[in-house]
Amino acid sequence: MTSYIPSITLPGQLFAQPAASILLPIVTGTGIGLFVRPTETERTYLAVKQPPYRPPPQVFGPAWTVLYGLMGFSAYRAWTTGMASLNPRTVELTKQGATLYTIQLALNFMFMPLFFKYKRPVEATVDITILTGVVGYLTYIWGQVDIVSGWALAPYLGWLGFATYLSAGVGYLNNWDIADKERPIDKSA
Q: What's this model's pTM, rounded to 2 decimal places?
């Protein structure tokens, strides 16, 4: 069970504005992707031993953009629906979800730097495993507030399960050490 913790929760005004709610994860996620440097990320991704079913690197940018947008839509929808409710339990669940949402956003934004910039697959896998659990619980909480909000998080939850498999698989196949793994990118392909 979680509680609403105002000191660590994004402001309600952010959730109440559809553009802000949707653009926050997209813009911040893109910024972190640029901070980690896409070319270096791709070099590392192509150099490490990968588990079966890994997608090509070009899939991640569009996939995360859509997932971040759905995440922001879910936040907006849950907040506006839940806070307008006359049921005190629904309002409480909405606020608890806002705290969970903020926590999952922080965990999400930590993954790329942990894995690709600092090359720490153990910590990145722990991070994404906790993230998947938090998002699962958030989906459950916000699904009680508004069914559409819960379902809007379902693709994200599915992708996190797959990403956890990829992170753990890469860690395991590379003996949990990817520190010196980078490969030049062939631009002619």
A: 0.90
